Amino acid sequence: MISVNKLTKIYRTPFKTGNVVKDLFARSYKEHVALKDVSFEIGENELVGFIGPNGAGKTTTMKVLAGILYPTSGDIQVLGATPFDKRPEFLKQISFIMGQKNQTFWELPATDAFEFNKAVYEIGDEEYKRTVGDLVDLLDATDIIKMPVKTLSLGQRMRVELIAALIHTPKVLFLDEPTIGLDIVAQSAIVKFIKEYQEKYKSTIMLTSHYMQDVERLAKRIIVIDQGHILYDGKLDELVAQYSNVKKIYVTLLSPLPHDFHLHDGVNFRYEFPRVEIDSPRSHLSEVLSHITKRLEFSDISVEDEPIEEIIKRVFTARKG
Amino acid sequence: MNSFLTLFRISLEQYFIYRLSFVLWRFRMVLNFLLIFFLWSAIYENKVSLFGYSRQEMFTYILIMNLLGALLFSSRTGDLAGEIRDGKVINYIMKPFSVLRQLLTKEAADKLINGSFQIVETVSIILIFKPPMFIQSDPFVYVAVLVSLCINILISFLVLYLLSLIAFWTAEVWAPRFIYFIFISLLSGSMYPLDILPKSLYTILLFTPFPYFNYLPTRIYLKGFSVSLIFPFFMSLVWVVILYFLSRKIWNKGMKEFSFFGR
Questions:
Q1: Over the stretch B125-180, which tens digit does the pLDDT of each residue have?
Q2: What CA–CA distances, in Å, run from A145 to A102, A117, A159, B5, B136?
Q3: CA A119, CA B6: separation in Å to the nearest integer?
Q4: How many angstroms separate the first and last alpha carbons of chain B?
Q5: How many domains does chain B fold into?
Q6: Among the partner residues A55, A107, A115, nearest to B6 by beta-carbon distance
Q7: Measured between CB atoms, which of B6, B18, B94 is closest to A91?
Q8: Distance (Å) from the alpha carbon of B192 to chain A's nearest alpha carbon
Q9: Are A63 and A97 in contact (CB under 8 A)?
Q10: Domain for residue B49, yes or no?
Q11: Is residue B163 domain-resident?
Q12: How many CB atoms are located within 10 Å of the residue B181 CB?
């Protein structure tokens, strides 16, 4: 469905030398390697999350795949087409949704944008009615689609934006920061929708997000990218198993920690009464737990996986070093 | 066809949202015209003919120039520059409906609105000030005016479109546009008929796109379609072809080079 082979993208950005005449007539350029020899394949009905810091190359990758950016080199096939050609048959099967740039008409109700897309994507009346009906139900958007877009909240605007972008039920969907700036409730509504949409329409989805939670909840497979290189490509749980060999134990104490309290060698803990936070290696988990129950008086104890953010941070530092 | 009609309707609806700013814009256009109108009234005070134009022809000239100006220079292409800068243009690129066609559709809606207001304003000015008017009786001339006007609308659109494409390379898109409009007001004949200029200067001008906005059709209306107008007519067609290929080339170059970096 999507195949990327040795994709490299180099940006040329004008560079100011300080000499006005030279800057104007003979610009110097600085080259910035945004992506270097990136290769991967994505199959039908997969949902892949892209993870990486700002400027890592996540959005650049998606923009090349959608045909917005021209690749410096490499072989890219999406739905059997070369994306940059932007042939109508290709464009009709994809959608690129940006959290920050809306396609709905600011002053008008979202339904105007729906109707425009209906015409542009040549969708029949029946199909249009059915799809919009479905999407409106999934997003609970019956009332907001009739209001001028400018009167909607950020979360509502993202909902109508999604409907506008999905009217032609694309086979491949690129979501660039779909939850940016949204509050928890709006964010989880969008995430829930993406999940349901993918199940219902069997589409292939690529997603970038700064919120690890979004990716965690949606993507079984993730691609971790930094400075234009892929650091990890695989299942999310395997990443956790590979990079996280500690479990977090949180203890709420009833009385202060004894001065002579210590754990196995190499087991770190942080303490601030009444809370103790212990990083226990998986291999020593039962010993550490029994030691705690023997030595300490507590009102609460919990054992959790490391937060995914921590693990990702470790992937970045491990691969860089 | 359906895409055109839907976008055309939406563009019209957008206009009626900002009624006040539109009315003020039209008010400015009327004042602008009255200035030129009174200027020529003063010049023709007690005179029958000047620079080969009778009083009647001159007033007809400026009225028609102004009427056609609304169709030629009202434009939505300025929006495109901003949308290229902030990356919003991606939304248009991703549709199976070319950006040029989307823009032409919006442009048509814009010209319909501005043109209709201009007709009402022009008729009101004629009724209020009762300037002497020349009425062309040859129906062929009206056809020639219409053909020339259509060609010139394309020229005007393509030049403004090209000026917006500068946004692919620099943020300073308004300065070239502003300078362009200064040239237009001086060289397109908006204030005076171009053929009152010295012959050599006039001939040079015929090679530039400037006479092919409102000057040529107005001139055809007034003096009919004579042999001397074949060359300018031909040149206007040459400019459409040149500008069309240039704009395609520059658009493709912009699409290839532009990074939308961080946008």
A1: 899 988 888 888 889 999 999 999 999 999 999 999 999 999 998 888 889 999 99
A2: 14, 14, 9, 21, 52
A3: 7
A4: 32
A5: 1
A6: A115
A7: B94
A8: 36
A9: no
A10: yes
A11: yes
A12: 14
Residue B260 is predicted with a pLDDT of 61
> Is B111 among the domain residues?
yes
The SS3 call for residue B189 is coil
The 3-state DSSP class for residue B15 equals helix
Phi-psi region of B246 (alpha: psi -120 to 50; beta: other; left: phi over 0): alpha
pTM of the predicted model as reported, rounded to 2 decimal places: 0.86
Which residues in chain A have their CB less than 8 angstroms from residue B257's CB? 12, 70
Is B171 part of the contact surface with chain A (CB cutoff 8 Å)? Answer: no
CA B96 to chain centroid, in Å, comes to: 28
Whole domain around residue B83: which residue ranges? 2-257
pLDDT digits (tens, 9 = 90+) for B82-141: 999 888 899 999 999 999 999 999 999 999 998 998 999 999 989 998 888 888 888 999
Which residues in chain A are contacts of B86 at CB distance < 8 A?
A: 101
| Residue in chain A nearest B258 by alpha carbon | A69
Q: Are B117 and B125 in contact (CB under 8 A)?
A: no
Output the CA–CA distances (angstroms, integers) from residue A260 to A273, A294, B249, in the order listed.
15, 14, 77
- Going by C-alpha positions, the residue among A95, A72, A77 that lies closest to residue A176 is A95
- Supply the ipTM of this predicted assembly: 0.86
Instruction: Count how many Cα atoms sit within 13 Å of the Cα of residue A40 in the half-sphere of its side chain.
Output: 24
* Domains with residue ranges and CATH for chain A: 2-240 (3.40.50.300), 245-305 (3.30.70.250)
Written as one letter, the residue type at A155 is: G
B17 touches chain A (CB under 8 A): yes
Question: In this structure, is residue B262 part of a structural domain?
Answer: no
